[in-house]
């Protein structure tokens, strides 16, 4: 299909598609004349992922490019590509990857001990060897350190139910992924769904809070 | 205590405290001379909440003021204050309260039907009467509509495990709250913990994804 049709079918303006092409977020089309290129279903699919990352996930262009590069890195096996792509996603404003935002103070050291004890408690063997450089690990240490610094220290016992809920979410996430047949689609869906389900989850937690608060304290909560 | 001590004990600069005072996020101190005011433990506690909202939750000043106003609204009972305060928190970039971001298109209408069916499926009676104006409900409809628009439609069956995890999170949230004795502390903690546990939760989900992916697909994922 031509650029105009790609735009109509994706709902993304031609100007934005050209911008994504220039930024390397979308592979070039197959050139048919000096000024025309031909695009295919793969472009449409990729555009879907780019929009999920940029419009919903607010992922910066450079990080989005890293994610997409990892997806296409043929030197990696399927699982490594998946891990590298999710790793390249931003992990919250509190812990930009590599920015050293977590510091080296006493709160952070205590938070790291709490997180390590938590991973042991819930028996996440893989995560225990995950490495302190993993962005999700750093994000968790930063979040636990912040809670403590702001006067809401949390123990391993406090965190364990959140970890158990996290594990259930991951099972649901992977179940969704396994529906996709082709490895490429599965990789793209992994990244898109990680980002797109975050607001779903946060909204459900707040609705459930109102539900649970109403159950415990009677009517009025959440109204 | 004087302003300087409030600054030292809270770790917030005097300039920032003065800014919060001007913006009405912190109640004025008790004036002792024309140029000096006296602050107490309640100021310290409030400052903790303001930092949680603004520095971690990235809550805009105006929204933070609304949250704090709800907490102090003596015309409301405890539960209503709690609900109103959490209601005033921002609900993600996708659905600024009152901005009508969710539109009225077919995707949104379908998303609303899915969300309503979900609330019925998981038997959240309170939430079923929660009202389509509730920010968390709007946030969920927007998120489900976005998934569909981007080519990842989700059914009630897909969402049900996320809702069940959300309910467990809410139970953990309310258990944490019930530790606080005074109603004022409980209200402040409710708002602070809603915001501060969001990054904890998102980080744990990502770590659990790596754990679960490794379990299903062997080593390599997440490395």
UniProtKB/TrEMBL annotation, chains A, B:
The keyword Repeat does not apply. It comes from the Bacteria. Residues 87-106 are annotated as: Disordered. The keyword DNA-binding applies. PROSITE patterns: HTH_MERR_2. One of its GO terms (molecular function) is DNA-binding transcription factor activity. Pfam families: MerR_1 (PF13411). Keywords: DNA-binding. Residues 1-70 form the HTH merR-type domain. Coiled coil: none annotated. CDD domains: HTH_MerR-like_sg5 (cd04780). SUPFAM superfamilies: Putative DNA-binding domain. This is HTH merR-type domain-containing protein. It comes from Streptomyces aurantiacus JA 4570.
């Amino acid at each position: 299909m031509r650029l105009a049709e790609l735009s109509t079918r994706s709902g993304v303006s031609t100007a934005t598609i050209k911008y994504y092409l220039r930024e390397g977020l979308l592979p070039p089309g197959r050139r048919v004349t000096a000024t025309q290129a031909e695009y295919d279903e793969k472009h449409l699919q990729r555009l879907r992922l780019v929009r999920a990352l940029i419009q919903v996930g607010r992922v910066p262009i450079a990080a989005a490019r890293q994610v997409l590069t990892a997806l296409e890195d043929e030197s990696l096996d399927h699982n490594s590509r998946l891990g590298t792509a999710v790793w390249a996603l931003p992990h919250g404003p509190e812990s930009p990857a590599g920015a050293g935002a977590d510091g080296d103070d006493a709160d952070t050291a205590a938070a790291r001990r709490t997180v390590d004890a938590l991973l042991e408690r819930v028996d996440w063997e893989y995560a225990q060897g995950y490495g302190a450089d993993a962005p999700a690990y750093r994000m968790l240490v930063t979040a636990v350190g912040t809670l403590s610094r702001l006067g809401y220290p949390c123990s391993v016992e406090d965190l364990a139910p959140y970890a158990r809920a996290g594990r259930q979410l991951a099972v649901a996430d992977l179940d969704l992924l396994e529906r996709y047949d082709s490895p490429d689609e599965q990789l793209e869906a992994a990244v898109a769904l990680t980002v797109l389900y975050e607001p779903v989850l946060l909204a459900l937690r707040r609705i459930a809070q109102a539900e649970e608060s109403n159950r415990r304290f009677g009517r009025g909560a959440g109204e």
